[in-house]
Specification:
489 residues; alpha+beta; Phosphorylase Kinase, domain 1; three-stranded antiparallel β-sheet; 33% helix; disordered N terminus
């Protein structure tokens, strides 16, 4: 029934042996159902190692290999899967993203490239033990410096921030070349892809989705800013969306930095359309308020269906901003960068916000944008103040659902740390009905129950491509840009 000839044998990370065979007259579906699925990955790997070893010694001895039927089935499956690109099982020694440094073996398969750039490469893969999809961001590691992105990611644990599951190092093709691999949870969509979908169909994103996305973005910013961390590259491409749950997660901390007072920072940071004016003015002592400006640009873009400040260059970016906000005053310029106070700019009046947006745009949305896009950094509201804004009041109502009738994802599972950031806002941030439910379940005022800190378990929305529900594109999206930084950055 099973006729096989050995072709090659390989060894991956000193753990998994594979043999290639030519197999005739076999029902693949029957074998995979009868043997592979019930036994699971670990058992199949064990049988594969045993069978491969038996074949190897049989070849040396010139005798027929003595292999049980189920082991032959495992060998067949190994052969079939080995013929597919990316299906090779890779086993590495990786360190968990959070907690103590306790390296462990992690195996993954079905690897394929989903993104690349100057920073490195991003792969999609599947963990063998759990069948969970992950994104692996591979960047060249400068041995002289610690990787800032890794150090920051290990500190973060929040339900609206992509989770670092593991990290490990691998060798490159060149001598002494070392790569850092960040194993991140995989989220299939981005806000950028959603906006493109609606733009191509000449539709506007439903206000309810804009509220849902922006609220979660502000919540993630409130968390990282409370730790002194500035993301420095807020844009739709870095906002991941899960179409099944409606959860938004901030990703790509390749440009992020823990800002220290008195320590200079590079001003050429952040993608152009979302770059705060103080960065354009060359400031090197900026604050986390540059993220607030970027978030305001994202909100305006979702409302407009296109970027609000589409500059072709750094200078043109400032021109686009002045067209809307008007020429900054001398005092505003001083607040952005004192070195620019002697420069003269043509005097242009600000454009009324009501005329910037469509007639049907909710006034609360316009008011929020105006409070985010302020020239003076200190005049911009904080992320948590944005969460408490009346624009998001609908999310705090008792029976609010997504347009398709599904429940909202967890929005009020605040940790004690989050509630300590600006306690005066807690009475607004925590809906009365949610606080009562939390107290009744023994979760306390924070409302952290079974969801816990940094988790999102509630069911959310399913996606259908119409204007009354969350529309997603077919292709998966994981954004990753930036890499190791050193010196003043």
């Amino acid at each position: 029934m099973l006729a096989a000839s050995v072709a090659t044998q390989t060894k991956a990370s000193g753990m998994v042996c594979r043999a290639l065979y030519t197999v005739q007259s076999v029902s693949v579906e029957l074998i995979s159902t009868a043997y592979y699925a019930p036994q699971g990955y670990r058992e199949c790997r064990r049988d594969l190692e045993t069978a491969t070893s038996n074949v190897k010694w049989s070849i040396r001895a010139g005798t027929a290999p003595l292999i049980p039927t189920h082991a032959w089935c495992v060998l067949l499956l190994a052969c079939l899967y080995a013929g597919k690109d990316g299906s090779k099982v890779t086993t590495v020694v990786a360190t968990p993203g959070q907690g103590p440094d306790r390296p462990q073996e992690v195996s993954y398969t079905d690897t394929k490239v989903i993104g690349n750039g100057s920073f490195g490469v991003v792969y999609q893969a599947k963990l063998c033990d759990s069948a969970e999809m992950v994104a692996i961001k591979k960047v060249l590691q400068d041995k002289r410096f610690k990787n800032r992105e890794l150090q920051i990611m290990r500190r973060l644990e929040h339900c609206n921030i992509v989770k670092l599951k593991y990290f490990f190092y691998s060798s490159g093709d060149k001598k002494d070349e070392v790569y850092l691999n960040l194993v991140l949870e995989y989220i299939p969509e981005t806000v950028y892809k959603v906006t493109r979908h609606y733009s191509k169909s000449k539709q506007t994103i439903p206000i309810s989705f804009i509220k849902l996305y922006m609220y979660q973005l502000f919540r993630s910013l409130a968390y990282i800013h409370s730790l002194g961390i500035c993301h420095r590259d807020i844009k739709p491409q870095n906002l991941l969306l899960d179409p099944e749950t409606g959860v938004l997660k901030l990703c790509d901390f390749g440009s992020a930095k823990h800002l220290q007072k008195g320590e200079p920072n590079v001003s050429y940071i952040c993608s152009r359309y979302y770059r705060a004016p103080e960065l354009i003015f060359g400031a090197i002592d900026y604050t986390t308020k540059i993220d607030v400006w970027s978030a305001g640009c994202v909100l305006a873009e979702l409302l407009l269906g296109q970027p609000i400040f589409p500059g072709d260059s750094g200078v043109d970016q400032l021109v686009e901003i002045i067209k809307v906000l008007g020429t900054p005053t001398r005092e505003q310029i001083r607040e952005m960068n004192p070195n620019y106070t002697e420069f003269k700019f043509p005097q242009i009046k600000s454009h009324p916000w009501q005329k910037v947006f469509r007639a049907r745009t909710p006034p609360e949305a316009i008011d929020l944008v105006s409070r985010l896009l302020e020239y003076t950094p200190s005049s911009r509201i904080s992320p948590l103040q944005a969460c408490a804004h009346t624009f998001f009041e609908e999310l705090r109502e008792t029976n609010t659902r997504l347009p398709n009738g599904r429940e909202l994802p967890p929005l009020f599972n605040f940790t004690e740390h989050e509630l300590s950031i600006q306690p005066s806002l807690n009475s607004v941030l925590l809906p009365r009905h949610h606080a009562q439910e939390g107290a009744a379940s023994g979760a306390g005022v924070s409302g952290v129950g079974a969801e816990g800190a940094g988790t999102s378990n509630n069911p959310g929305s399913s996606s259908t491509p119409d204007n009354n529900s969350m529309a997603m594109s077919d292709s998966a999206g994981v954004s990753a840009a930036g890499g190791p930084t050193s010196g003043m950055a």
